[in-house]
Amino acid sequence: MNKLLKIALSTTSLVGLCLMALVVQAGSWDNFKLRYFHLTAYLHNQDQEITDLQKQNLNLAKSTRINLTELLNGGPPTKRARGLPL
User: Fold this and answer.
1) What is the SS3 string spanning 61-79?
2) DSSP character at residue 2
3) Within 13 A of 41's CA, how many CA atoms are on the CB side?
4) Is the pLDDT higher at 44 or at 18?
5) pTM of the model
6) Could you tell me if 71 and 78 are in contact, meaning their C-beta atoms sit under 8 angstroms apart?
7) Cα(23)–Cα(34) distance, rounded to whole angstroms?
8) What 3 state SS string does 32-69 have?
9) Is the pLDDT of residue 25 over 70?
10) 6-17: string of b/e by CB count within 10 Å (b at 16+)?
11) What is the torsion angle, in degrees rounded to the nearest 10, for the CA atoms of residue 67, residue 71, residue 74 and residue 79?
12) pLDDT tens digit string along 37-85?
């Protein structure tokens, strides 16, 4: 039993170190989620989030902070493009 416990702990430690190395290599947790979406999609169930929003009967177009036209055009304009001081 002692040998099995050591194998389990070392395997868990190795997987944890590999995961931390991937996060550090990506630069941050957010970059890791973007770069390795196929791995992190299992951790974040977006279908459940959408279902919860639909149950609340919210108009998503009105309640979102993101302007859809800006998103489709590459993001909001920068301060320099709008003529504002930096």
Assistant:
1) HHHCCCCHHHHHCCCCCCH
2) H
3) 6
4) 18
5) 0.44
6) no
7) 11
8) HHHHCHHHHCCCCCHHHHHHHHHHCCCCHHHHCCCCHH
9) yes
10) eeeeeeeeeeee
11) 20
12) 777 666 666 777 778 878 888 777 777 777 777 777 766 666 555 555 5
Position 1, amino acid: M
pLDDT at 85: 57
On whether the CB atoms of residues 19 and 29 are closer than 8 A, the answer is no
Q: Give the closest residue to 39 by CA, choosing from 19, 20, 67, 57.
A: 19
> In the numeric block, which tokens belong to residue 17?
């170190």
The amino acid at 28: S
Residues for the chain: how many in total?
A: 86
Query: What is the C-alpha separation between 65 and 49, in angstroms, rounded?
Result: 16
